[in-house]
Amino acid sequence: MNAFRDRRVVLGVSGGIAAYKAVEVCRRLVDAGAFVSTILTEDAHRFIGPVTFSALSSEPVHTSLWDDASPIPHTRLGQNADVIVVAPATARIIAAYATGSSYDLLTATLIATRAPVVICPAMHTEMWEHPAVQHNIAVLRSRGVIVVDPQEGRLAGGDVGAGRLADPDTIVGAVEGVLSGRGRDMEGMNITVTAGGTREPIDAVRVIANRSSGKQGYAIAEEAHKRGASVTLISTVDRPTLPGISLVEVETAAQMLQAVETHAPASHVVVMTAAVADFRPVHTADGKIKKQNGIPEIALEATPDILAALGTAKPEHQVLVGFAAETNDVVENARGKLKRKNLDLIVANDVSAPGVGFGHSTNAVTIISADGSETFVPLADKHSIATAVLDSVVAVRSARRSQ
Ligand code: C5P
Q1: Catalytic residue status for 136
Q2: Which residue among 80, 210, 328, 342 is the active-site one?
Q3: Parallel, antiparallel, or unpaired: how do β-strands 269-272 and 279-281 relate?
Q4: Are residues 35 and 23 part of one domain?
Q5: Whose CA is nearest to atom 5 of ligand 1?
Q6: Phi and psi at residue 356, in whole multiples of 5°?
Q7: Same domain for 118 and 193
Q8: pTM (2 decimals)?
Q9: Which atom of ligand 1 is least distant from the CA of 308?
């Protein structure tokens, strides 16, 4: 389901150098199907013009309390909005919103609205870390405002530090969370996700590999990031992902085990999406095995079962999720695995079905919980499957809290 289709988003742009990035945010919201009304502050004008936004969104851009045919544009914009997002939000806008001061169209609209608000601060590190700014941010959070934290990186003037506007994907993801009703329901959670197939070396050039593309694991990592989680992605594949996700590159099952053992203990959630090889060569030949020497016999041994090891050492607070790629008796086999490996959830897919599993952009799964419940998710893109898996994770955590 597209959370943006025909929804009304007010995009507030205040006067920081990052204002140019709001153009990309606007474009993505429009592409996703939203009606976007932009409000530019007077200072934002110094960085970017209204024509760019009106051309992209086909909606008039608002710049002042006084330039609209309607005498009360702030209440109209605020009442009609499904969500308001301010990107970038300067220290001044944040202070005005926190203290209830209204001196222009954007500040008046923020105070006049009942719609959820997403604030995306961007400023120099010294300003972002100032106790007054942090206090205002805390006040806004306590009122239910969603704050998309700035990232570390290059700032205006060549400085480097915290304060750079979050990337457009993260901002649009936060807006999507609001529109879908999920918000940033994974805020404060550490999640470790594994993705891709392991490669076990035979010699210097050859490996035992599998067809896993990593798409499902990346989709889980990215959806968790959009929902506010702090994500570590342990991956064997070279795919682009969202800035803000901490990527650990590995190749073999042994390396994946080591990385997982480093990150899992502090994780609230671990999702083993990776297709880990079950067997590896006992010895890796030095150099390349020469074909002139005849067909080699390669002795194999079992790899460590990473998920089973995680299940044995599982901290009480953790939600452990495994995957089960099956071709027959899908649910029954997956249930057995869930028990044997001490999991909280298992995501079973019938990889013999069309469009399902390895390499495809779509998947169809049954999510089975340790309490016995089963959720079937019919064929959908891997991001929708990821959303369903994370919904189940969140449900397990809230059921535990209410026990
Ligand atoms: O037992 P099976 O290999 O079918 O279980 C699949 C699940 O176990 C997946 O979540 C996969 O990531 C994990 N696994 C593992 N280590 C292995 C094999 C599978 O963690 N050596």
Answers
A1: no
A2: 210
A3: unpaired
A4: yes
A5: 324
A6: -115, 135
A7: no
A8: 0.83
A9: 20
Last residue of a domain, one of 180, 197, 222: 180
CATH of the domain at 43: 3.40.50.1950
Give the pocket of ligand 1 (CB within 6 Å): 253, 272, 274, 276, 278, 303, 305-307, 322-324, 337
CA-306 nearest atom, ligand 1: 20
Same domain, 176 and 199: no
Distance in angstroms (rounded) separating the CA atoms of residues 108 and 354: 53
Give me the domain span that covers residue 348: 184-402
> In whole angstroms, what is the distance from residue 136 CA to residue 94 CA?
7
Positive or negative, the CA dihedral 90, 91, 94, 99 is negative
Beta bridge partners of 89: 121
Rounded distance, CA 138 to CA 133, Å?
9
143 and 213 housed in the same domain: no
Written as tens digits, the pLDDT of the chain (403 aa) is 588 998 999 999 999 999 999 999 999 999 999 999 999 999 999 999 999 999 999 888 998 887 656 666 768 888 889 999 999 999 999 999 999 999 999 999 999 999 999 999 999 999 999 999 999 999 999 998 999 999 988 888 788 888 999 999 889 999 999 999 888 899 999 999 999 999 999 999 999 999 999 999 999 999 999 899 999 999 999 999 988 899 999 999 999 999 999 999 999 999 999 999 999 999 999 999 999 999 999 999 999 999 999 999 999 999 999 999 999 999 999 999 999 999 999 999 998 888 887 878 889 999 999 999 999 999 998 999 999 999 999 999 999 988 7
Which domain-ending residue is among 180, 203, 235? 180
Count the domains in the chain.
2
Q: Whose CA is nearest to atom 16 of ligand 1?
A: 305
Q: Could you give the CA distance from residue 110 to residue 84 in angstroms, rounded to a whole number?
A: 8
Q: Which of 255, 260, 263, 272 to mutate to test the pocket of ligand 1 (most atoms within 8 A of CB)?
A: 272
